[in-house]
Amino acid sequence: MPMTYGSVCSGIEAATQAWHPLGIRADWFAEIEPFPSAILAHHYPDVPNLGDMSKLAALVLAGKIPAPDVLVGGTPCQAFSGAGMREGLTDPRGALTIKYVELADAVDYVRANRGEPASVIVWENVPGVLSDKGNAFGCFLGSLAGEDCELQPPRKRWEDAGCVYGPKRTISWRILDAQYFGLAQRRRRVFVVASARYGFDPLEVLFEREGSRRDSPPRRPEELSLHPTLTAKGGGSLDDREAYVLEPEGVRRTSVIEWERCQGFPDNYTRIPWRGKPSSNCPEGPRYKAIGNSKAVPVVRWIGQRILSQFNLSR
């Protein structure tokens, strides 16, 4: 049987682009935004989009949707982003992080009752979550680990990489930058891998024992121009710096295709029929936003490859 996953806050599905070539299959998506949902329906019509992720735990417990091998998602980052208000868990978007843990617990409960190994959890967010004033990351780690209180960082903020051994799960986290995975974009994101699965070591997924590291610059041609981090607002106004690049000929606006390439998606992946109009008339604004909100495909692929390796060892 192929390894399966459920995706929450799915966006335009970087996980599916990364993992389908590896033979990992989606049981379901969960996305509420209209344009990304239309992209999912266009590319993956056979995978149900369940919408509101906060309702999924009850559906899993009721046996109405599968409890997959892997749960993947990047709950909304605006609550922790330096570009936002940094309201953390008091922001309804940040509170979805706790709903994510509730869903993970529901999945593992059902799997345990069926005699199946525990799931693997993959979570992604902006580095700002590590220094959130309300210790959002500590709350997340404590809940995921099965502690009865939030965990505290050893200093004023959480380190860029680390691990926690809890009564419920082992957790590892690490900041990974898309530019070190072959993309022309500086994009630092926190990735968390956690599991209670016997014989599965989350540290072996995110940390290399030898060989090329993913937190130091690779050797690359000097002429390769790195793009600043893509955001959801890019392409919308003249002061969006990520929407423009400086070249010898002058400043020009980056194209949607260039944004897709910066995230590792195929050209015109986001150009779809939209609101009764053909794909040739698909507006650029929603495309920029959807791409900026997504994950970097090669980073997610690397994680998926290492999860598969650990799955094989834990069987």
List the helices and strands and how they pair.
Layout: E1 4-8, H1 14-19, E2 25-30, H2 34-43, H3 56-61, E3 70-73, H4 92-113, E4 120-125, H5 136-145, E5 161-165, E6 170-177, E7 188-195, H6 202-206, E8 244-247, E9 250-253, H7 256-263, H8 284-292, H9 297-314
Parallel strand pairs: 1-2, 1-3, 3-4
Antiparallel strand pairs: 4-7, 5-6, 6-7, 8-9
Helix pairs in contact: 4-5, 7-8
* SS summary, helix count: 9
What does the largest sheet look like? 7 strands, mixed
The radius of gyration computed from the alpha-carbon positions, rounded to a whole number of angstroms, is: 19 Å
- Helix-strand makeup class: alpha/beta
Give a quick set of tags describing it:
two-stranded antiparallel sheet; alpha/beta; seven-stranded mixed beta sheet; Rossmann fold
Task: Offer a quick outline of the entry.
Helices cover 30% and strands 16% of the residues. The protein contains nine helices and nine strands.
